[in-house]
Structures are given as C-alpha cells and as structure tokens.
Amino acid sequence: MWSALSAARLRHLEGKQEAIDITIISPQPELHIRPRLYEADLSGMNPSLVELFKAAGVRYIAGIVQQIHPQDHAVAYTDANGQQQSFNYDKLILASGSTLFRPAIPGLKEHAFSVDQLSEAQELDQHLKALAQRPASKARNTVVVCGGGFTGIETAAEMPARLRAILGADAETEVIIVERNDAIGPDLGAGPRPVIEQSLRDKGVILRLGDAVAAVDANSITTASGERIEADTVIWTAGARASALATQVSGERDSFGRLHVTPSLRVGDSDIYATGDMARAASDKVGNHALMSCQHAMNLGRSAGHNAMADVLGLPALPYDQELYVTCLALGTGDAVYTEGWNREVKMSGADAAALKHNINTLWIYPPQADMDEIIAKADPASRPVQYR
C-alpha cells in the first residue's frame, strides 16, 4: 500500500498521471492490520483500500502472484476466477511480506493455532469461545504459547483476561509461554525484560524457559526435555520468513529469506525493488538493519515506491534511512512498555505506555484518507517517522 501511494505521490507531483500506470496485484483490496491480531476484538482489522487506490490513481488487480520472470519483466498470477494470467512491468516492487515460520514439529500443523493472518486469528477466537461448551478440565483451561518473542508476549499477556471472559471469573486457568532461550523476549534485550517479567507474573503467566516444543497433539504439547503439558489450546508464534517469491529473484538472501538490497531498495542492478519483510535493508550507517515490523515496513514502502517511480522518471533516488528506533510492547489491557534506541532503554511503562500503544494500534498504522493531499503528505519518504513521545 505505502509503495503504491508513494509512487503515486511522486507521479502526481511530476504531473505524469496519464503517462505512467501503477498497478497492485493482491488477493484482496484490504490492509490487514497484522500487528493487532493478538487482540481479542478483531473488528476493523482489514480496512478497505478501494477508495484510497481510486483517489491515488492506482489500478488494483485481485490475484495471487505465483511466478516472477525477471528476464521477461513479467509476473504470472492467478486471478480471482482461478485463471492464470500474465502482467508485464517496467519496474517491480516486491512487497509480499512474510509468513509465520512453522518447522516440521510433529502435530504442529494439525493442532496449533496462530495469530499470523487475520483468518488464523479468527479461527483461534472461535476456538477459544467454543471452550465454554467443553467439560471443565485442566487441558480446556490451559493455553500454551510457543515462543516468547514480541508476538508471543503480546498474545500471552492478553490470554488470562480472554479466558476469564469466556470461562468465568472463577475458572482456574493457566497461560504458559514455552521459550527455547533462557530469557523471555530474547530479541528484545535486557532493557525491558524486568518490566515484561513483572507484568507477566502479575497476570499469572507461567514461563517455561530453556525448553522447546517437540510435539503437539489435540490436548497437549511435549517439550524437548520430555515434559507433557496438557492444553487444548496451543498457539505458535515463533518467527517469520519472507515470502517464497524472494527465491525467484537472483540475489543474496539472509536467514529470514529477505533479499539484500541497495540503499534505494533495489535488488542488485535489476528492475526489481524489495520492501517491507522482503528486504534486508540498512536502517542507519552504524550497522543496524530494518526489522520485520510495521515500524520499518511503512517507511520501507514509502522509499521503495518513490525510488521505483524516480527510476522511471529519471530522477535521483532517495536512500532509505531510519535512524530512530523504538519498541512499544502491549502487555495486556492497560499495560505496555515503551523503549527507545537499539539498546531498548525503557522510557515509559504501565498505563502511559498502554495509551501510546493504543494510538499506534488504532491511528498511526492505519491507511490515510482517500484524499490526494493527505496521500502526498503521508506517503512522503523524506518525512520522519512519528516521534512517539
């Protein structure tokens, strides 16, 4: 979305609306608000982009891209009717994101839920609500969250209240995080860890650290150490990998499958740009790289769209950079922790951080209005990210 809007912005400013086409191929003309899918209320998580694309002069094609043919400057896709189609391009922006990494753990695919995609979060929600119809048991009343990273923490912190709302305030419930590392939030560092640990303890969330999930069945998990934990609800949150479309493009990839890109987000010297979770992009000049997060994806999108359009128009590229880095981690209703810098220095926690997280989740990561003036303002790659304080 941001790539298309930024490209449309530059095209509009250069007065080239009639000369250059911008086309998006995507399964639905919606923006799925993926960072919020751990929440209990899933309404409003897929705002329509139809009117926004009309306002920007962006053509939308309903389809799923299956093949990229760089030598032919073409993509092959399956349209909404299941028919195979081909589309030619001058410049291609790969913005197909990432999906949850699901290793070959026995029973994981069959029995574990996730909050990776909207349909999966909805499936989990239906399952949780149906628990009230089952006979009371330890397995019914237990939720195991596999993975103690950003998504795992946010999901687990919501679960005690969700279970009480479904099973009753007096139900004896357990929420357990299983994390293979010896510390919760291993990628978040030591800065916010005491706040996270205290918040989880206050909510009764149990931590199983230094152990991994070895198998999942309909009513339990088995850990690598041999412990069996009874649970009718297992939620997998451990990691993401870039869309498999990245493997169809020549270029170096990192351990997440992301394509290495130049400062302009171009893949090598090709006519292909990668952005969002598809791109391994330097975010500053001291060795930090953009993460697989909306915070970086929004600015990466603006930069990729601008630079692809600048390439068409013969204008100079604007190198992507995003020196400001923050985290704002939800810790259940009315609770959060906010940090600044790559060392994640805690600046705010509790209710104040939760109010900030509410603004991020309900305002800042949503699409702009279907108005060209607002698109021009908000799709500018040279604008700085929101100063959260």
TrEMBL record:
Its cofactor is FAD. It holds the Pfam family Pyr_redox_2. GO terms for biological process: aerobic electron transport chain. InterPro entries: FAD/NAD-bd_sf, FAD/NAD-binding_dom, NADH-Q_oxidoreductase. SUPFAM superfamilies: FAD/NAD(P)-binding domain (SSF51905). GO terms for molecular function: NAD(P)H dehydrogenase (quinone) activity. Residues 56-299 form the FAD/NAD(P)-binding domain. Keywords: FAD, Flavoprotein, Oxidoreductase. Belongs to the NADH dehydrogenase family. This is FAD-dependent oxidoreductase. It comes from Duganella flavida.
